[in-house]
Design goal:
Layout: H1 11-19, E1 22-23, H2 29-34, H3 36-45, E2 49-53, E3 58-62, H4 85-104, E4 110-113, H5 114-121, H6 128-137, H7 139-147, E5 151-155, E6 165-168, H8 171-175, H9 178-196
Antiparallel strand pairs: 1-3, 2-3, 4-6, 5-6
Helix pairs in contact: 4-7, 4-9
C-alpha cells in the first residue's frame, strides 16, 4: 500500500517562488508572510535562500555561490543568462530611473513608455547610424528584459509601439545592487570609450 504524503499548506507559495519573484499584489503574498519560517526552512534544505524585501514589496529565491572548499557543491538550479550590451545598458538605465522614482516617492510602481525608454537610451548613442539601428532593434533588449522579469508589458499599442507601456519590476533592485550598478556602469563606460577611440 502506498503511503500518501500530504502537500504542504504553503505549496502554492513554493511553486510561485520557483517560477519567479512574488510581489505584494500577488495572491500568494499574504501566505508567504504567514508561512515565512517553514518556507525558508524548506528552501534551506535544498541550498536555496528566500529573500524578502518587504519595503519594496517583493520576494525571491536565490542560490548562494558554493564555498570554495565545498567538496560536493550543489548543481545550479537557476542558470545565469548572458544578456547583450543593449539589454545591460537598458537594465542600468531602468535601475537608475527606479532609484529616481523612489527618491521622488511617486508611488510603488514605475511605468515607462517605449518612447520614454528611447529618450533615455539615446543619450548613450552619439552617432545617428547607431541610433537608427537601435530604434529598429529596441524590441530585442526590451523583450530580453521581459523574459528575465525586469520589465512587464502593461499596455500594448499595436498602431504605435512608442506608446507601449512597461512596468519596471522591483526585482531589478535585487538583481542589480548599488555596488553592482556602479561596477556595470564603469564597464559600460570603458566599453563606450574603447568603441569611440
Amino acid at each position: 500500500m502506498e503511503n500518501k504524503i500530504s502537500k504542504a499548506i504553503y505549496a502554492n507559495v513554493i511553486i510561485r517562488l520557483l517560477q519567479g519573484p512574488v510581489y505584494v499584489d500577488d495572491t500568494v503574498w499574504r501566505d508567504l508572510l504567514a508561512w515565512q519560517s517553514p518556507i525558508e526552512e524548506y528552501f534551506a534544505k535544498i541550498g536555496i535562500k528566500l529573500e524578502i524585501a518587504e519595503a519594496d514589496g517583493f520576494a525571491w529565491i536565490k542560490q548562494p555561490k558554493a564555498e570554495e572548499n565545498d567538496d560536493s557543491p550543489l548543481p545550479r538550479l537557476m542558470k545565469k543568462q548572458a544578456i547583450s550590451y543593449e539589454a545591460t545598458l537598458l537594465s542600468v538605465i531602468l535601475r537608475e530611473v527606479l532609484e529616481e522614482h523612489d527618491v521622488k516617492s511617486e508611488g510603488n510602481k514605475l511605468y515607462l513608455t517605449q518612447k520614454d525608454i528611447k529618450e533615455r537610451i539615446e543619450l548613450f548613442y552619439k552617432e545617428q547610424t547607431n541610433k537608427s539601428k537601435l530604434w529598429k532593434e529596441l524590441s530585442k533588449p526590451i523583450n530580453n528584459l521581459i523574459n528575465i522579469g525586469i520589465l512587464k508589458l502593461n499596455r500594448e499599442d499595436t498602431a504605435n509601439k512608442d506608446n507601449n507601456q512597461y512596468e519596471v519590476k522591483r526585482i531589478i533592485k535585487a538583481l542589480i545592487s548599488n555596488e553592482r550598478l556602479e561596477e556595470i556602469k564603469n564597464k559600460l563606460a570603458a566599453h563606450v570609450n574603447t568603441v569611440q577611440q
